[in-house]
């Protein structure tokens, strides 16, 4: 008696989700699914709201970031409902003395000032949004809550209503630029298969779903808060606290593997202290996520040559024993780095490391001299420290998982050429 034996000739899988096998039985090839073949609600949800190839196609921090980002979007939608009601009340909805023309003028002035603020902010801070995406992302959400708080208070000051909503309009325009630009920077970080468009599209789907849920809850809230200013303010503060907490957790969950100035400083200081290389996860945990306004030694990367040297003597001191394609100096308390036209990404990292090393030396309590000669001596000492440590440091950070093929160090565009000493 012959027994028919199924022969598996091939297997295949879709990402890390489904797996199939090709079986030959009685001379016929059949395709069968491994495991249960029943409809999966979780699988359908992933297909609709998560990028194709998840989780292999995104960064490891994707799910945690999206969870907190979804929660903050939900809280923001509920706050928006309260603000919208206050704004409509302020322009005269429900008031027989209010005119359509006055409400229209108020709205035009609000949108116009917002457009002006958008252009100004993008001009002044646009180049910094990539390098400090976490800080500006959190700043945008804090500013958004401030703008909504101003708008919800506007009806209580009818004489200044137009001024208040125009101010809020400027704030919201800044939020639009900073929030949109930093979301794009985070999408670049999350995309591991050049799938930025897919991630961005699915993020939009997630946000739309959350906004729909927020609108449903808002329909329940509206009858409760109508003509009840105390409850409206109380709920606003509750949603704002939730919004800020979720945003803080969201940016804290991001683990970027590229160096910006803050992350490079953290890793370099730890290495110079005990020769230990911090992983991207460790360094990102220590990275500050709030904008800092304290006075520190500024570092300017990619400046004009005249910002580094102002005389032949300065040029001699800056290029002494220096075969690298960059020159570094101190001017008016600011560390300036002039980059050569042929500098590589590794040269950029090295130059930034020396600037950070010099910054730490200048902040040391043991340094008190401010003469030009003493400053050039400090530049020379920082160069010696980096010459002795950089090669090993670079190998260590690459082994620890850092991406040294690109940086977020916010270099300006000036490049110079000069005759360098051979190494």
UniProtKB/TrEMBL annotation:
Q: Is Transmembrane helix found in the keyword set? A: yes
One of the Pfam families matching this protein, by short name = UVB_sens_C
Membrane-spanning segments: 160-186, 207-225, 231-248
Its predominant location is: membrane
Name of the molecule in the record: RUS family member 1
What is the species of this protein? Oryzias sinensis
The Protein root UVB sensitive/RUS domain sits at 38-274
Q: Which UniProt keywords apply?
A: Membrane, Transmembrane, Transmembrane helix
């Amino acid at each position: 008696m012959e027994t028919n034996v199924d022969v598996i000739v091939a297997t295949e899988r879709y990402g890390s989700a489904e797996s199939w096998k090709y079986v030959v039985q009685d001379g016929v090839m059949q395709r069968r699914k491994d495991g249960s073949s029943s409809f999966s609600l979780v699988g359908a949800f992933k297909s609709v709201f998560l990028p194709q190839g998840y989780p292999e196609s995104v960064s490891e921090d994707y799910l945690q970031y999206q969870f907190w980002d979804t929660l903050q979007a939900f809280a923001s939608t509920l706050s928006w409902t309260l603000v919208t009601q206050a704004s409509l009340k302020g322009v005269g909805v429900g008031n027989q003395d209010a005119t359509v023309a006055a409400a229209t003028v108020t709205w035009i002035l609000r949108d116009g000032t917002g457009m002006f603020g958008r252009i100004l902010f993008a001009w002044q801070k646009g180049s910094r949004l990539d390098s400090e995406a976490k800080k500006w992302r959190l700043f945008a959400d804090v500013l958004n809550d401030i703008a909504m708080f101003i708008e919800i208070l506007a009806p209580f000051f009818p004489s200044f209503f137009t001024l208040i909503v125009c101010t809020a309009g400027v704030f919201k325009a800044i939020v639009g630029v900073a929030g949109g630009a930093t979301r794009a920077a985070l999408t670049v970080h999350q995309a591991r298969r050049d799938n930025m468009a897919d991630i961005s599209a699915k993020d939009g789907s997630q946000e739309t779903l959350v906004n729909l849920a927020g609108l449903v809850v808002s329909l329940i809230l509206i009858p409760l808060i109508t003509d009840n200013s105390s409850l409206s303010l109380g709920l606003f503060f509750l949603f704002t606290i939730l919004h800020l907490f979720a945003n803080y957790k969201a940016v804290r969950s991001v683990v970027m593997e590229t160096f910006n100035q803050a992350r490079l400083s953290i890793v370099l200081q730890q290495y110079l202290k005990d020769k230990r290389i911090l992983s991207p996860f460790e360094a990102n945990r220590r990275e500050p996520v709030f904008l800092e306004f304290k006075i520190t030694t500024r570092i300017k990367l990619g400046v004009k040559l005249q910002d580094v040297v102002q005389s032949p003597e300065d040029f001699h001191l800056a290029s002494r024993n220096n075969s690298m394609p960059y020159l570094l100096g101190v001017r008016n308390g600011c560390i300036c780095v002039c980059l050569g036209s042929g500098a590589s990404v590794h040269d950029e990292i090295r130059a930034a490391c020396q600037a950070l090393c010099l910054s730490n030396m200048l902040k040391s309590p043991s340094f008190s001299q401010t003469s030009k000669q003493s400053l050039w001596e400090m530049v020379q000492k920082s160069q010696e420290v980096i010459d002795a440590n950089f090669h090993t440091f670079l190998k260590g950070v690459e082994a620890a998982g850092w991406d040294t093929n690109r940086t977020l160090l916010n270099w300006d565009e000036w490049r110079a050429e000069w005759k360098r000493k051979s190494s």
